[in-house]
Structure formats: structure tokens, C-alpha cells
Write a structure and sequence with these properties.
about 550 residues; alpha+beta; four-stranded antiparallel sheet; 7 helices; 30 strands; elongated
């Protein structure tokens, strides 16, 4: 039994091993009762640090100063690569005019970062690896069953082929039997005709024999010769047997006719793990959404907004410049479109790189380390809007050059993977025109498109199958028909869309059911939408040129 604790896990003094602990030496890391404190510090060692037991391990142990050994380094010099310094060092000529920070503050920040890392490793990264491992184990467990289904399907195909071949052979045999009957009938008919003639010849010979023996004048003179009649010989009938011409077996062609085995395909889907993932615990709607901040971008016409990180957003308007602002409205970065044309849309990928569409050239571009590179170039179609999916793919809305067709295309990098354009009945999912249709992916991988001309939000699953359409909610205060523009989703898979002419935001659940409006934050002509990692909503106001940050969840 552990002498330092009882069955109730009561901590005991490390010196006497019987009394209940009262204090703690934060330097020696020893449990102490009241009576043993004096004994512990009686050695005259000046480093003992006695604290209440509940505050144990709270005393920081600072490094000794290399220049002034009698002092502890409780500061760091920012100008000297954050080296540890003591108070005497700060007054020296070496560090004159330098900037110092408290080691305790750096320690606390680092401790919090370590705790955060431990939390991410334990609750995010480790479970993700477990999920991947479980998926692979399930694939291995299902391997034999999957291949058994393949071989069973092949056997069934073989049996079906055997049956079909038997049917064909039997049909050919029946045809031969029918030909044989016709053959026999033809031969028999000719044989019967010959035998009939032969009988007549015999009768004629008998008559001639009687005449030869007879001495009567009249029958002999009246006899009519049959030679001419019997000299007309019948044709010699030769009927050739039918032949069976077997076709040579082309094993290669036969193999392909039976079926096809697709090669083993190993698809490595990019696993994007965002370490700044939002808190996905259940969040409820606020009774009254709150306006948190307003960013003045100074655009004449503001066209869109997308979240970057830590209260920083990218914006674009009616100029060639794409601007990044912080929540205070301070301009942090500017990216200028080399073509001098305004972009059609912007987004941010999982690595924090800016993406933008240049409509005039039909390209999707990426800005990485300050350099712009072309990702996608379209022919015959013009890109309008885009979003980045949870697995790093791009979804791009686009219209045809004749303005009659509209579709959504999924790209992996620069490679086209999937096109979404028609429903199960072959009807277009989206209205055909050149107007921008905003797009986003929901947390459940549904693809949500705001089709302004159709007055609808159109949602399909990741395979392109229509799930639902939202065409607005009856309201006595919203007088104009719904014309949805910007669209985004939150951590609960709710869909939010901007109602441009009614100056509000519609919030829908993942099944397309209306939940509420955001119409109390003095919004004017809301256009672009996005949410940050904490489910704060950013709304761009078209004519005012403002971005409003709104809290709508508790």
C-alpha cells in the first residue's frame, strides 16, 4: 500500500509519511505537513519555496544569468534573439535601448500553446488518425468479401454465356433439321416422278412384246412410238448439303465481350486537417443577432468578402485591387490584378492562399508568396464564382459563351473531376444566363448555389442529385421577391444567404427549412457572405462599401 496516501487518496507528508499534507516546497517538489516545514528549511538552503499545497508547482524556476550569476533571468531581449537577461543586463551598455519582455508572460503564452497543442493532438489529430486507421482496417476486413462478389459475378456471367450459347446451338440444330426435311422432300419428289416414268416404260415394253408376237395387222400399224416421249430425260438432281462455317475464335475480342476488369485504382484523397477548426459543439441562434464591428473598405462598390484568419478578411470591388483588412479597418495587403480588370470572385484555400477569378480571360488564379499563378483556364465557358471544399477541391460556377447554360464543375487542382448541370429528369438545375451564381459547400458536403434569377437556393449532394430548393419565406415586412446572392454555411450546417433587395439574411437549416432573418443590423444591399472559425458572419454591403461582422449564434 502507498504510505503517502490512504484508500481515499489523501496526500501525506513526504517526511513523516503519516500527517496530512499542508504545504509544498516548490523548489524541492516535496509534500510537507505543518510540523515538518521547519525541519525541511532547517538546512539553511535559501532556495526553498514553501507554498500552500493547492498552489504547488506554481513557482517558476528562472535560469541563472551567465553574466551576473547571482541573479535570475526574468526577462528576454527582443533585439538579441530573445536571449535571457537579468535586471542588471538591461542596464548594461550591451542592451542599451533594447526591448525586453517578461519571461513569465512568454512562459504563460508558451504553456497555453503547449496545452492547446496537447488538446489538438488528443482531440483532433489523434482521433483523425484513428479514423483513418479504422477505415483501412474496415477495407482490409471487407477485402475477401469484395473479391468474392467479383468472382461470383464472373461465374454468373459465364453461366449466362453458356446458356445463351446452348440456345444458339439448339436454334441452329433446329434450322438444320428443317433444312433436312426440305432436302428429303425434294429428292423424294424427283424420285417419285422417275419411278412413274419407269412404270410407263415397262408398260410400253410389255405392249411392244405382245405386238412382236402378234400377227394382227391393225394394232401393229396403229402403234405410236414412245421413243420421243421417253427420250426427253429428266434433269439429274444434285442437292448439296448445307454447310456449317464456324467463325474463328478471337480470344481477345471474346474476352472483351464477356466483360471488363478495371485495373486496381489507388485514390489518395487529400486529407486537409485545419488546426484552426471552429468549435463544432451545438450552437443555438441568438434571439437578437449582434453587430460586432464595421470595416470601412472605401470601395465605391463592394462585391465580395472572404475570411482569411484572426479577424482578417479579403475583399474586392469594382477595381482591379483585392484588399485585405483587419477588424479595425486597417489595410494589411493589396493584390492587384495584372489585367487591370476587376475579379469576379475570391476565396482562400486551406493553406491561406488567395484565389480569384478573372472573368475576361476565363481563368482561376492563385496568389502564393506574392506571385500569381494560373490554375484553370476555360474555353467556351466563363467562370463566375468559386469556393474551396473541405477536402481542398474547388467548386466553380460557370456559364456558356452563348449565355444559355449554367453548370457547377469540381476541380482537383487543375483537373476537372465532376460536372453538375441537370437533374434526374434531364432538366437544368440552374437558370441559364450570365448572372453570377454564388456557391458554397456545407459541412455535410452538400453543394449550395444561390440562383438569383431563379429566385431560389438550389442544394444538391456531392454527386449532383437535387436535395431541395428554397424559394423564400412568407413575410409581411419583406415586400420584394427573394433574389439570393451571397451564400455561406456555419458549423451546424445551416445555410445563410443574402437577400439583396430586402436588406436581410435568410438562415435555413440543412434541410432547407426557414429558421429566421437577420434584419436588425442596418444592412443595406447585402451581397457577399462568409463565416469565420467561430461562426461570426461577415457581410459585404454593396453600395456602402462596408463589411459588417455579426454574431448570430450563442
Amino acid at each position: 500500500m502507498d504510505p503517502h496516501s490512504s484508500a481515499q487518496d489523501v496526500h501525506r507528508c513526504d517526511l513523516c509519511e503519516t500527517a496530512i499534507v499542508h504545504s509544498y516546497c516548490d523548489f524541492c517538489h516535496v509534500n510537507l505537513c505543518k510540523l515538518c516545514i521547519a525541519d525541511h528549511i532547517s538546512d539553511g538552503y535559501d532556495k526553498h519555496k514553501i507554498v500552500p499545497f493547492r498552489e504547488r508547482r506554481s513557482t517558476l524556476i528562472y535560469p541563472k544569468c551567465a553574466t551576473h550569476p547571482h541573479k535570475n533571468c526574468d526577462l528576454q531581449c527582443k533585439n538579441c534573439n530573445n536571449i535571457f537577461v537579468c535586471s542588471s543586463c538591461t542596464a548594461s551598455e550591451t542592451h542599451k535601448g533594447h526591448i525586453f519582455v517578461e519571461v513569465s508572460e512568454v512562459y504563460t503564452t508558451k504553456k497555453n500553446a503547449i496545452a492547446d497543442e496537447a488538446n489538438k493532438l488528443e482531440n483532433l489529430i489523434s482521433p483523425t488518425y484513428e479514423e483513418i486507421a479504422l477505415d483501412l482496417e474496415n477495407q482490409l476486413a471487407n477485402l475477401d468479401g469484395g473479391y468474392e462478389k467479383l468472382t461470383t459475378a464472373m461465374s454468373k456471367q459465364g453461366e449466362q454465356w453458356h446458356r445463351e450459347i446452348d440456345v444458339i446451338i439448339n436454334k441452329m440444330k433446329t434450322e438444320i433439321s428443317e433444312i433436312k426435311v426440305k432436302h428429303r422432300d425434294l429428292l423424294q419428289k424427283h424420285l417419285d416422278e422417275i419411278k412413274q416414268t419407269q412404270a410407263l416404260i415397262k408398260q410400253t415394253l410389255v405392249a411392244i412384246e405382245e405386238l412382236k408376237k402378234s400377227t394382227e395387222v391393225s394394232p401393229t400399224i396403229e402403234y405410236s412410238s414412245k421413243i420421243r416421249e421417253f427420250s426427253k430425260l429428266p434433269p439429274k438432281v444434285k442437292i448439296t448439303l448445307p454447310t456449317f462455317i464456324p467463325k474463328p475464335l478471337d480470344r481477345g475480342k471474346l474476352y472483351s465481350l464477356v466483360g471488363q476488369i478495371t485495373p486496381l485504382s489507388t485514390a489518395t484523397e487529400k486529407n486537409v486537417l485545419s488546426l484552426n477548426q471552429p468549435n463544432t459543439s451545438v450552437k443555438e441562434l441568438l434571439d437578437e443577432p449582434e453587430l460586432v464591428a464595421t470595416i470601412h473598405t472605401r470601395y465605391g462598390k463592394l462585391l465580395g468578402v472572404t475570411y482569411l484568419h484572426e479577424d482578417c478578411v479579403w475583399t474586392f470591388g469594382s477595381t482591379k485591387d483585392i484588399k485585405c483588412f483587419n477588424i479595425k479597418g486597417e489595410l494589411l495587403h493589396t493584390v492587384s490584378n495584372k489585367s487591370e480588370q476587376r475579379p469576379n470572385a475570391i476565396a482562400v484555400d486551406s493553406d491561406g492562399n488567395l484565389l480569384f477569378i478573372e472573368g475576361t480571360s476565363g481563368t482561376v488564379n492563385k496568389v502564393k508568396n506574392g506571385q500569381t499563378e494560373e490554375l484553370i483556364r476555360l474555353r467556351g465557358w466563363s467562370p463566375c464564382n468559386l469556393c474551396v471544399t473541405s477536402n481542398g477541391d474547388l467548386l466553380v460556377t460557370m456559364f456558356s459563351d452563348v449565355f444559355t447554360q449554367y453548370k457547377v464543375v469540381r476541380y482537383s487542382g487543375s483537373t476537372e473531376k465532376h460536372t453538375i448541370q441537370f437533374d434526374d429528369e434531364g432538366k437544368p438545375l440552374y437558370s441559364g444566363n450570365a448572372h453570377i451564381k454564388y456557391i458554397t459547400e456545407n459541412r455535410n458536403h452538400d453543394i449550395c448555389v444561390a440562383d438569383s434569377d431563379a429566385g431560389a437556393v438550389v442544394v444538391v449532394n456531392q454527386n449532383g442529385k437535387l436535395i431541395w430548393r428554397y424559394i423564400g419565406h412568407p413575410s409581411v415586412t419583406k415586400k420584394k421577391p427573394l433574389k439570393p446572392v451571397g451564400i455561406t454555411t456555419d458549423s451546424q450546417s445551416r445555410v445563410l444567404t443574402a437577400d439583396f433587395y430586402n436588406n436581410c439574411i435568410h438562415i435555413l437549416d440543412q434541410n432547407g427549412q426557414f429558421l429566421r432573418y437577420i434584419d436588425n443590423c442596418d444592412l443595406e444591399y447585402p451581397l457577399g457572405l462568409c463565416v469565420d472559425n467561430n461562426d461570426n458572419l461577415f457581410v459585404s454591403e454593396h453600395f456602402k462599401g462596408n463589411v459588417k461582422k455579426i454574431k448570430f449564434l450563442r
